[in-house]
Amino acid sequence: MNPDELRKNLVGTWRLVSYRATAVDDGEVVEPYGPRPQGLITYTPGGHMSAQIMRPLRPRFRHGRLEEGLPEELAAAATGYLAYAGTYEVPEDDFVVHHVELSLFPNWVGTTLARVADQDGDRLRLSLPEPALIWGARRTGVLVWERAR
Asked: Which domains, from first to last, does the chain contain?
């Protein structure tokens, strides 16, 4: 798919179906946000994007306000959640690059995240272009999204 066609097809909101990371050495598969992660990724026609992923059924805080969260509650909430936003571009066939402006993980702010994009109908598969360190091993990472209705 050429870059213009992919960019046009990305526009909209997608719901996360799965996120699996497979170890290069031994094939061990992990699901960083559990077997049924929840998430949304949105691409706008103007070139902005936002991604949110969470582990379902995260523990609720004892008190009803974020600023009253205990350190361990805040840590558990962050451990089960990933969020970032910024702009995106499609520089070549089958690649989307996210330029991170905001992120729950501060180390990503100001970086770019390249993903191999394979879109087929209402399914979007975003993969790491090369293995990365995930849960203590070099792994491939694959997120499968379905167009939100």
From this structure: 3-147 (2.40.128.280)
Residue whose C-alpha is closest to residue 32's, from 82, 98, 105: 82
Query: Are the beta carbons of 40 and 14 closer than 8 angstroms?
Result: yes
- Tell me the C-alpha distance between 54 and 16, whole Å: 10
Q: Which 3 state secondary structure label does DSSP give 123?
A: strand
The token duo for 77 is: 């909430």
Nearest residue to 90 via CA among 9, 11, 13, 3: 3
The Cα 51–Cα 66 span in angstroms is 21
- Whether this prediction's pTM lies above 0.70 is answered by yes
* 91-108 pLDDT per residue, tens: 988 999 999 999 999 999
Question: Of 100, 74, 70, 71, which is closest to residue 87 (Cα–Cα)?
Answer: 100
Give the 3-state secondary structure of 13-46: EEEEEEEEEEECCCCCEECCCCCCCEEEEEECCC
